[in-house]
Amino acid sequence: MIKLFIFLLMTIMILILQINQPLIITIFMVFMNLILTMLMGIMNSSLWFSYIMFLIFISGLLILFIYISSLASNKTYQFKLNYFFINMLIIIMFFMILIFMNKSNFNYLFNLEITPMNLNMFNLNYENNLNLNKIFNKMSMIITILLMNYLLYTMIISIKIININKGPMRMK
After folding, report:
1. What number of other Cβ atoms are within 10 A of residue 162's Cβ?
2. The whole model's pTM is what?
3. What sections of the protein cross the membrane (predicted)?
4. pLDDT tens digits along 108-157
5. Cβ atoms within 10 A of the Cβ of 14, count?
6. How open is the CA angle 139-143-149, to the nearest 5 degrees?
7. Alpha carbon distance 82, 54 (integer Å)
8. Which runs of consecutive H residues, i.e. helices, occur in the chain?
9. Which end of the chain offers a freer environment for a tag, N or C, measured as fewer CB atoms within 10 Å?
10. What are the two backbone dihedrals, phi and then psi, of residue 83, each rounded to the nearest 5 degrees?
11. What is the DSSP track for 20-43?
């Protein structure tokens, strides 16, 4: 299940790089946000953290969308189905090659099974129940890295969308 979510995240990231329309990019970013928070909920065994992160991401995306849509030009988006299928085929082939050529490292990277020994920190009878979940512990290290990459990726996309020469900039 986790591998499927990570595959969907990577697919959406690659598809976003080829789109120039702010509305479509925002829709893809909302899907990425939803997948990322579901992944965080599965990995953390606590849905409250992922719910709060979902609300934070959505609010940031709404602010970015309002800012970018006021600066971007009003062009109609033409969806090319053949181009989409070719991109999806390339993405699927790339991930299949990645899985088969580097199978041991791929399994090591996504080996996120939670054993009963790792669940001791979620036990309510644990003597330090004030430290239920630390942000930078070993179990949530991958989530933290995913969040950092997500923020970097959002910054790169917003810089890619805002180009002074392609659209109108409101001076007044």
Report:
1. 15
2. 0.50
3. 7-36, 48-69, 81-101, 139-162
4. 455 545 444 444 444 444 444 444 455 566 667 777 788 888 888 888 88
5. 15
6. 145
7. 33
8. 2-16, 22-44, 47-71, 81-101, 103-109, 141-161
9. C
10. -65, -40
11. --HHHHHHHHHHHHHHHHHHHHHH
